[in-house]
């Protein structure tokens, strides 16, 4: 039986690589960030990496139904791909999606269909996403937030959402970095 990552990479590639090559590079970069923090995830490292490579599949033209990519991606993973429930939940709620869902009037829909994963995993996926540029290279969350707000415009729904989410994104990053530092201090 394939691991979650062995299953997730070809699926994400089939949905993103051709129609959205830059988004595919971003997802590969987010998965790479997930590997860098595997030491704090124990048995959930494979789960996080699978969710990381799949987190933006809702942008794929064939999947974009509502225009809210976390929901579209999670629904596809649940209804079509038969994905692991924990992967689905991480995709549905990645990077403070609940705040964007609220701004779109879709919060009840998101929360009603998909339970949230443990905070440490949601933090970890947010950290990975917000520390990766659209081209898949490492960055920091402040620059990433500025890039998103600049790309969509400060007064757009996404620009407003990302600024509202900024304190939580920075808190997620801080919690992950604290966990990584603590894990590195542990004797072998």
What does this structure look like?
By secondary structure, this protein is an all-alpha fold. It has helices at 4-16, 21-36, 45-54, 69-79, 85-92, 97-103, 107-113, 119-130, 141-152, 157-185. Helix 4 packs antiparallel against helix 5 and helix 8 (119-130) packs across helix 10. It is globular and about 50 Å long.
Secondary-structure blueprint:
Elements: H1 4-16, H2 21-36, H3 45-54, H4 69-79, H5 85-92, H6 97-103, H7 107-113, H8 119-130, H9 141-152, H10 157-185
Helix pairs in contact: 1-3, 2-3, 2-8, 3-5, 4-5, 6-7, 8-10, 9-10
Distance between the termini: 31 Å
The shape, in one word, is: globular
Main sheet specs: none
Query: Structural class, from helix and strand content?
Result: mainly alpha
What is the number of E strands?
A: 0
Total helix count? 10
Contiguous low-pLDDT stretches (5 residues minimum) are none
What percentage of amino acids are in beta strands?
Answer: under 5%
If you average the pLDDT, what whole number results? 96
The gist of it:
This protein has about 190 residues and is mainly α. It has ten helices and no strands. The chain starts with a helix and ends with a helix.
Highlighted features:
mainly alpha; globular; 10 helices; 66% helix; 188 residues
């Amino acid at each position: 039986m394939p691991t979650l990552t062995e299953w997730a990479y070809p699926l994400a590639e089939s949905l993103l690589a051709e129609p959205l090559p830059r988004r595919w590079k971003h997802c590969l970069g987010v998965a790479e960030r997930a590997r860098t923090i595997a030491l704090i995830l124990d048995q959930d490292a494979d789960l996080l990496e699978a969710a990381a490579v799949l987190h933006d599949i809702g942008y794929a033209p064939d999947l974009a139904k509502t225009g809210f990519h976390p929901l579209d991606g999670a629904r596809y993973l649940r209804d079509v791909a038969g994905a692991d429930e924990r992967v689905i939940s991480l995709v549905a709620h990645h990077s403070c999606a609940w705040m964007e869902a609220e701004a779109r009037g879709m919060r009840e829909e998101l929360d009603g269909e998909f339970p949230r994963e443990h905070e440490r995993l949601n933090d970890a996926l947010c950290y990975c996403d917000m520390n990766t540029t659209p081209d898949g290279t490492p960055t920091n969350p402040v620059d990433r937030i500025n890039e998103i707000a600049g790309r969509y415009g400060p007064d757009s729904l996404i620009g407003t959402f990302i600024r509202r989410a900024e304190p939580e994104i920075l808190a997620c990053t801080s919690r992950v970095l604290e966990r990584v530092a603590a894990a590195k201090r542990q004797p072998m």
